[in-house]
Every structure is written in C-alpha cells, then in structure tokens.
Prior knowledge:
Blueprint: E1 2-4, H1 10-28, H2 32-46, H3 49-53, H4 57-70, H5 77-89, E2 93-95
Amino acid sequence: MxxxxxxxxxxxxxxxxxxxxQAMEREHGIPWKxxxxxxxxxxxxxxxxxxFVKMDxxxxxxxxYARKEFGDHKPSLVxxxxxxxxxxTHSEYAEW
Length: 96
C-alpha cells in the first residue's frame, strides 16, 4: 500500500508498523525487540536536552531535524519511523 503520511489513519499506522517490524527483522537478522529498544533510545536521546547536546555530531544533525519536526512533543515510535521515511526518501508518501 502507498499513502500520503499526513493522510494515514490509525489503522494504516498499525499496519505500517507491523510490516516495518517484519522487514527490519529480515534485513538486519536480529529480533524486533532489539531494534525497537535502539530506536526508542534514539527518540529519548533526541528529545532530552541534556542527552541531545552530548550526542555524536553526526547523529545530532538528524536529531535536530526531528526536534524541528515534532517540537517539544516526543513522537510515538510509529510517527518517528514515518518521519524517518520522509527524511530518507524526501517524499510525503509511505509504502508498506
């Protein structure tokens, strides 16, 4: 399925997340729980002012874009993944 990110329903996001979990496990060869914990740690570091300034400068660039996109509101896992799709593909659409 292909859909504009801003038009995705809650059900679309659940389906996207499930498909993403399966794809990432296949691509990386590690359990989703390990991948998920790393992503959640990245989100926490990005939206924690003290941790953000201590980030490696290479990672802080993308983190700054995330902070600009979401403001003071730490995004959910699925919203962060969708934002990442948008950042990487330069497209307003997600496919799953």
